[in-house]
Amino acid sequence: MRAEPVLAAKDQTRLPETQGPTAAGGGLGSAPFAPSPGNEPLLQLTPGDDANTDNDNTNENDNTQEMAPAISTVETVELTPDLAKRAIDGFVKLKKTYQDTDIAEYESLEQFVAQAKEGPALEKDIKSFGFKTVGEWNTAITSVSFAYAALSGTHEDEIRQELENIEKEVDLDQQMKASLIEGLQSMLPSDNNKKIVADLNLQKVWAEKLKMLEETEDGRDH
Asked: What is the pLDDT of residue 70?
């Protein structure tokens, strides 16, 4: 699992990618526009091998910084079939329309909307699917992406394993531990969301659209 959730806290309006049943996801551009569940450890909870053991106090401070949370709570929403479909259609539209722009260079979709010449058009496209803001759409597609990743059967297992590892960390600051746990738990899709996305994935037209979330980082579909 990657250290970051689909979106970092300040980047909650980035376009997400996800790991689906067969492959990792991709962003709109040639490089991923936002991180997502992958195959790397979510957290590095132990200090590096080059730690200086001659200065315990310094090491303790350094280790605390090294173990600082790399994930934040991700905002999600309870999906309905209609909301999930609109979010997916919005993703497909944006992917096809803006994949050749420099959208990946922006910190967030909101920044892209505000600063890029294509920004107003993107915002208009998002609103055409019934979303009031790009942030509202992003929350919906993030919820879809987590639920879709769960179809692989490994997404939740990996997160729960990380949660178990954190619970066992006796030297981890309790406030930090609570923050990490909260962040990881926010990445677990609800049963409702899993069912809705699983049902959509049984329908060919929606399965093909969901598959676009699986695009790998090697530019396979660009």
From this structure: 56
